């Protein structure tokens, strides 16, 4: 059964940026778009398992810090080689200034 997890304060993430969130044995990446929306994906690149929170956010993409592959963090789509496997994405909601993810 899906569970909503309190991941961080909304203000913990700068606009057009990403932070890492670890829960149990999993790592997530939480993004704040230029449109002030929040998104969540798996936190590791599907190519080399590098933490995406160390990558560069531009518009609606995250660039992996190791080989510069890119994903659209809104839907997880792999957009530039060497990545070819999409990221899993997770629903996000804001409540009382907090970011919650559904896992």
TrEMBL record:
PROSITE patterns: RIESKE. InterPro entries: MocE_2FeS (IPR012747), Rieske_2Fe-2S (IPR017941), Rieske_2Fe-2S_sf (IPR036922). Its cofactor is [2Fe-2S] cluster. Residues 5-101 form the Rieske domain. GO terms for molecular function: 2 iron, 2 sulfur cluster binding; metal ion binding. The keyword Cell inner membrane does not apply. PANTHER family: FERREDOXIN-RELATED (PTHR21496), RIESKE DOMAIN-CONTAINING PROTEIN (PTHR21496:SF0). Belongs to the bacterial ring-hydroxylating dioxygenase ferredoxin component family. This is Rieske family ferredoxin. It comes from Paramylibacter kogurei.
């Amino acid at each position: 059964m899906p569970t909503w997890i309190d991941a961080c304060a909304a203000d913990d993430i700068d606009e057009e940026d990403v932070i890492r969130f670890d829960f149990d044995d999993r790592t997530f990446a939480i993004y704040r778009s230029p449109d002030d929306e929040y998104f969540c994906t798996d936190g590791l690149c599907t190519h080399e398992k590098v933490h995406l929170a160390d990558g560069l956010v531009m518009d609606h993409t995250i660039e992996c810090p190791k080989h510069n592959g890119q994903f659209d963090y809104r839907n997880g789509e792999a957009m530039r080689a060497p990545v070819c496997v999409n990221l899993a994405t997770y629903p996000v909601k804001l409540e009382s200034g907090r970011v919650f993810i559904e896992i």
